[in-house]
Structure formats: C-alpha cells, structure tokens
Amino acid sequence: MPALPTDVPTPRTVAGWGPFLWTRVLFPPAPSPDTRVRLRSLLLVVLLPAALLYPTLSFRLLEPDEGRYAQIPKELLDRGAWVVPTLQGEPYLDKPPLMYWLVRLSYAAFGVSEASARLVPAVCVHLTVLAVYLIGRRSVGERAALWAALLLTVSPGYLGVARLLLLDGLLTLCVTLSVLCGYEAVRTGKLLVGWWVASAVASGLGFLTKGPISEVLLFPPLFAVGYLTPGIARVGWKPVAVFAGVVVGVNLPWYVGVYLDEPAFLRHFFWEHNVLRFVKPFDHLQ
Questions:
Q1: Cα-based distances in Å from 232 to 23, 130, 182, 229
Q2: 109 exposed, middle or buried (CB, 10 Å; 0-12, 13-18, 19+)?
Q3: H helix runs in 80-218, sequence order
Q4: pLDDT tens digits for 188-228?
Q5: Can you tell me the distance from the alpha carbon of 216 to that of 253, in angstroms, rounded to the nearest whole number?
Q6: What is the rounded CA–CA span in Å between residue 114 and residue 53?
Q7: What is the H or E stretch that residue 87 is in?
Q8: CB atoms within 10 A of CB 189
Q9: What's phi and psi for 40, nearest 5 deg?
Q10: pLDDT confidence of residue 218
C-alpha cells in the first residue's frame, strides 16, 4: 500500500472516507503521464489483435444465436430493406438494428458467408482494443494504456466472443467508447463539450445495438468517479439533457420508422425485453 501524504487530513465523516480511500490509498496522485503515441506500440495493438482475430472466422455458425444474427441481415439484403428486421419472413422485434445493418453492409461488400458475418464483431473488438490504448493513454499514460490493450487482446473469454456473431462485441465497443470519452470530458475539472458529445454518440449507438443498457453502464460509474475524485467536473442537468438529446437524435429516425411499420415494436422491445425478462423467466430459461 502506498504511503499516505502527510499533508492530507484524516476524514472526519463517514462520507469523506470514500474519496479519501479512492484518491489517497487506492489511486494516489501521480506525475503527469507520458501520453505520446509510440509507433512500435501502435503497430503492436494493430497487428497482434488482427493476427489473432481475422484468420479464424470461417467455421460453421453456432445455433441458435449465430444462425439468427446471420439470417436477419441476409433477409434485409435480399429485400433491399433497412427498417424492419425479419427472420424467416416474419418481423423480428427483439433487438434494435445496428448489428444487422453492419452485417448487411459486410455481406454487400464481401458476399454472404460465415466469415463476412463474423467480420463485424471481430472489427468491433479490434477497435475496442485500439480505443483502450489511444484514448486511455490520455489519462493513465502510454505504458499503462498499452498494457491494458494487450491484456484485453489476449484475454481468452474476450477473444473467444470476438469470433462469434453476437451483439456483445459491438455493444462492448460502444460502451467502452462512451465511458472513455465521458471520462475525458470530465477528467480535467472542466466539462469538455467535444468529448461529452462523442460519449453521447457512442452511447446512442449502444442504444441502437441493444437498448438502454449502454446508458446504465455509463452514468453510475461516471457519477461515482465524480464523487470519489476531487477536481472532476460535475455533470449537471444541462449536460445530461444535451447527452439525452444526442442519444435520442441517433435513435429516433429508426424508432419512428419501425413504429410506423410495426406498432407492436415499442411495447415488445421496451417492456418485454428490457423489463419483464429481468423479473421473470423469459426466452433464455437457463
């Protein structure tokens, strides 16, 4: 445990112990980190994940999830459609469409195959590793950000999911970008609008991937670090309103379009898939 600075008084209240332990014991202040991007490090986080991810995408689809997420974009491509996802010709209203759109674009560019379908989550995971390094170095320095990116690259569970056609890779990219950009927006003590809007755009794309879980994974840790860390910019209702407006702006066109074609979507998705499934057995009984 690092030695405590002698000029820091012991907290006099229970509430004061949280910030004290966080900033003086667990994560004591350090000199300004080296944030320069080194070419060798950048090549490493570009080439190592590529070597581990892209050569192994052509094995047979695993049922039921991969088959479902491969077929829905194929039907969108066959129909020349974008708004209403379908499975076996019937509207599939369980999830928003961002993953289906990306796989549809991959099919159009590279042909319909297992590899072109799985290319989307693999690229998303690769971009997440790059984001951890390129954005993370701003707050923790080049060395720590590089090691974080490399450890993420060789994590077996993370690497395994990256090769599967699931929503997890895309959602992880959106949430990671949202959290990293959100922290950059508040880290210096003054709310930086550009980083804040970037965080909102990433969060909005996460909403367009799997619903409001992206916002749930952002705001609690962001408010917690604001409470625990002196000097972090406080996020008031106006920045939150701007954030919400950006998220709505990213999502509203598709939600309006799908509602006009399939009015049952809003209740089915928001109520059944974002409320009921957490309070009683639903679909995934295991």
A1: 12, 25, 11, 6
A2: exposed
A3: 98-110, 114-140, 142-153, 156-162, 168-187, 193-210, 213-216
A4: 889 999 999 999 999 999 999 998 899 999 999 888 888 88
A5: 22
A6: 14
A7: strand 86-87
A8: 11
A9: -65, -45
A10: 92
CB 42 within 8 A of CB 49: no
CB 266 within 8 A of CB 259: yes
Residues facing 90 on adjacent strands: 87
Question: CA separation (Å) from 161 to 26, 40, 57, 147?
Answer: 31, 27, 11, 21
- Whether omega before 5 lies within 30 degrees of 0, making that bond cis, reads no
Of 275, 276, 124, 122, nearest to 212 by C-alpha is 275
- The tens digit of pLDDT for each residue in 74-127 reads 999 999 999 999 999 888 888 899 999 999 999 999 999 999 999 999 999 999
Give the mean pLDDT of 236-263. 92
Residue 38 has pLDDT above 60, yes or no: yes
Cα separation, 170 vs 98, in Å, equals 9
pTM: 0.85
38, two tokens: 């080194």
Residue with the two structure tokens 């598709």: 254
Distance (Å, rounded) from C-alpha 118 to C-alpha 272? 28
> Could you tell me the two tokens for 29?
């202040």
Residue 118 CA to residue 169 CA, distance in Å, equals 10
The pLDDT value recorded for residue 111 is: 94
If you ran DSSP here, which 8-state letter would residue 86 be given?
A: E
